[in-house]
Structures are given as C-alpha cells and as structure tokens.
Design a protein that fits this description.
- The complex is a heterodimer of chains A (116) and B (119).
- Chain A has 116 residues and is mainly beta.
- Chain A contains no helices and eleven strands.
- In chain A, the strands form two sheets. In chain A, strands 2, 4, 5, 9, 10 and 11 form a six-stranded mixed beta sheet that branches.
- Chain A is globular and about 40 Å long.
- Chain B is globular.
- In chain B, 0% of the residues lie in helices and 50% in strands.
- In chain B, the strands form two sheets. In chain B, strands 2, 4, 5, 6, 9, 10 and 11 form a seven-stranded mixed beta sheet that branches.
- In chain B, a hairpin with a 2-residue loop joins β7 and β8.
- Chain B is mainly beta and 119 residues long.
- Chain B starts with a strand and ends with a strand.
- Classes of the chains: A mainly beta (116), B mainly beta (119).
- Chains A and B meet through β5 and β9 of A and β5, β9 and β10 of B.
C-alpha cells in the first residue's frame, strides 16, 4: 500500500516535444506529491510539488496534473530540451499525523532522453 | 533556496575500514535528516530517519550496527559505514527537512550524494 508506481522506465523525446511521466499510488493518506530531477552522480533536486486540493500546478515548462479519484499524478515537460535529459522520480508523502517522521515514498524513476 | 552539503563526494576505502559521510544544512535548521542508498539506475531506498538529538529510526533490513547515524546538531548529521565491505559500495544520499519554516513540512532538500567504493 506504500508503493508508488512510476511509468515509463525510460522515455525518448525529440527536442521541442512533450515528455509525460505517470505515477500511481495506493495509500489514500498521501497528500503531498513532489517530483525530483536527478542528473548522473548528483542528488535529486525538487522540480515541482502538488497538494491534493488542486488538480494542476504549473511552473515554467513543468506541469503536474493530479487526479485524486484515480490516485494518479503525472509530470508534463513542455518544449523538452536536451538539458532536461535526466532521471525523474515521483514521490508521495503524508503529514504522518503531525509527527516529525513524514517520509517520502519514491517511484522507480524514469530515464528521460531528449534528442536534439 | 535551502542548501544541503554532503562530503565527501567520492570515497574509496579498503575492506574492513570505516568511512564517515557528513551531511550539513547550510542555511536552515534541519529538524529531520534522512539517509538514502541508491544503486545504479534504481530508485532511492530510505535507510534511516533521524531527528536532532534523538536516536535514528532505521528501516527494516538496514543494519543499525553497520550504518551508524548521528544527528547531534540541527545542522549536521553523519553516516558511518563500519567495517565496510565491497557489497556496501553504493551511492549514499542525505536529505534534510526543516519542519517548521519550510513551505511544506515534507519538503526535503537533498545533498549531492557520496559514492562509496570499497576495495
């Protein structure tokens, strides 16, 4: 029930195209959904995050779409660029009833390659 | 933005020795720190969670005597891999969270990671 399933495992997009990565979760207690970008040999960096009270959040070329009833959320990268080539992780967490131990559960990751 | 500094970025050691990895929050107080392990082309696996001044909480299957975690101050946590063996070779990443002043109590900032190679 704690799993977050991410797809696809890898994605190849042409420059200027739209990259779409999907995640699904089971735990209805999850109420925080961030996306992280990781370059080889580096730690993950937060891209964008959403709470369940909105269905979409946009920051620059990155958009999160959230479907609470389907327990799914996705990342859309518009006008994809070669510099976007990286591994993307979705994650989910809950406020753990106010305790300090609110952990994030990560998806399996998607390797995105944007061809010039 | 919040910065988490992790050192060293890469360490090579002989089998049987111990290695210490430091994780510092540079511009905020980290009430909670997390340590992850990541194998090539795989996701992040949470090893343990620590609150400042408290003992770390280890995830199931993680040997607490092998992976010693200390979170003695609000800006520093250390992970010591004791008696390291080749199977401990991996990418270790810390993250830090400031429960009280960040935009979300779940917002985590990650260090750049430490690549450990045990010969």
């Amino acid at each position: 029930q704690q799993q977050v399933k991410q797809s696809p495992q890898s994605l190849i997009v042409q420059k200027g195209g739209i990259s779409i990565i999907n995640c699904a979760y089971e735990n209805t207690a999850f109420d925080y959904f961030p996306w992280y970008q990781q370059f080889p040999g580096k730690g993950p960096a937060l891209l964008i995050a959403i709470r369940p009270d909105v269905s979409e959040k946009k920051e620059g070329r990155f958009t999160i779409s959230f479907n609470k009833s389907a327990k799914q959320f996705s990342l859309h990268i518009m006008d994809s660029q070669p510099g976007d080539s990286a591994t993307y992780f979705c994650a989910a967490g809950d406020y753990a009833g106010g305790t300090s131990y609110g952990k994030l559960t990560f998806g399996q990751g998607t390797i995105l390659t944007v061809h010039p | 933005g919040a910065v988490v500094s992790q050192h060293p970025s890469w360490v090579i050691c002989k089998s049987g020795t111990s290695v210490k990895i430091e994780c510092r929050s540079l511009d905020f107080q980290a009430t909670t720190m997390f340590w992850y392990r990541q194998f090539p082309k795989q996701s992040l696996m949470l090893m343990a969670t620590s609150n400042e001044g408290s003992k770390a909480t280890y995830e199931q299957g993680v040997e607490k005597d092998k992976f010693l975690i200390n979170h003695a101050s609000l800006t520093l946590s250390t992970l010591t891999v004791t008696s390291a063996h080749p199977e401990d070779s991996s990418f270790y990443i810390c993250s830090a969270r400031d429960r009280w002043t960040s935009g979300s109590p779940l917002l985590q900032y990650f260090g750049a990671g430490t690549r450990l190679s045990v010969l």
